[in-house]
Amino acid sequence: MSERQQKEVDYMTAREQRVDEYEQQLQEMRIQDAEEYNQVKIKLETDVEVSVDALMCLLSVSAPSLGTLHFDCTIYCSMFDVTKQEQCMQFMKSMRFHKLHCLL
After folding, report:
1. What is the tally of structural domains in the chain?
2. Angle between helices 66-79 and 85-103 (to 10 degrees)
3. pLDDT by residue (tens digit) across 74-97?
């Protein structure tokens, strides 16, 4: 009987060690995935900012009048489902700024 009990104890000890190793590996994978996610998120945010700046410069060059600028704003607002008038006005202000910036 004691031999069987010893085998059961050995088995449970080995099982606990495997479980601990798997939990440690899982935790390391979670940390690695979180770091990769943050890197990709930062890269995408940077890419979006660069693309928006380039788009604003292109739109400001192609928008010679305020009417066209307002039209571009309404298209922008509908594209991104922006319904607030304040955000459209902010976009128009930033378009004017970028137009001046691109022309300099």
Report:
1. 1
2. 130
3. 555 555 554 555 666 666 666 666
Q: How many residues does the chain have?
A: 104
Cα gap 73→79, rounded to integer Å: 10
Distance CA 77, CA 89 (A): 10
Distance of CA 16 to the CA centre of its chain: 39
> Taking every pair of C-alpha atoms in the chain, what is the biggest distance, in angstroms?
95
Whether the model pTM is above 0.70: no
Query: Using CA atoms, how far apart are residues 71 and 95, in angstroms rounded to an integer?
Result: 12
CB 69 within 8 A of CB 92: yes
- Domain extent, residue 7, equals 2-103
